[in-house]
């Protein structure tokens, strides 16, 4: 019985993970309209964007200057930031999604 419950819990966890991974799969970069610039930093900028087919969906889109990151050898810092954002589950930290 305990093994069955454990398997069921694992299956539910896999389903939740799949839903999280596929939550915004239908959105492409071309589907977003830039509303405003939220911030500018050393590696690029963060834009407020809106899904053109559903104006109630807004996102913060981070645009990085890849060549500048490579030139300054900051790839590890960018990967670290990505991994931290993936791991964080806080209402005060944006969730990480890829387009």
Structure description:
- The chain is α+β, with helices and mostly antiparallel strands and 99 residues long.
- Helix content is 39%, strand content 24%.
- The chain contains 3 helices and 3 strands.
- It has helices spanning 2-21, 66-71, 75-87; strands at residues 32-40, 44-51, 58-64.
- The longest helix has 20 residues, at 2-21.
At a glance:
The chain has 99 residues and is an alpha+beta fold.
The best one-word shape is globular
> Which class of secondary structure composition applies to the elements?
alpha+beta
CATH H level, superfamily name of the domain at 29-87: Phosphorylase Kinase, domain 1
Sequence of secondary-structure elements: HEEEHH
Q: Give the N-to-C terminal Cα separation.
A: 42 Å
List unreliable stretches of 5+ residues: none
The CATH topology of the domain at 29-87 comes to Phosphorylase Kinase, domain 1
Corresponding CATH architecture of the domain at 29-87: 2-Layer Sandwich
Number of helices: 3
User: Compute the gyration radius: what is it?
Assistant: 17 Å
Strand order of the largest sheet: 1-2-3
Largest sheet, in brief, is: 3 strands, antiparallel
Q: Strand portion, in percent?
A: 15-25%
> Can you give the mean pLDDT?
84
CATH class of the domain at 29-87: Alpha Beta
The count of strands amounts to 3
> Helix coverage percent of residues?
25-40%
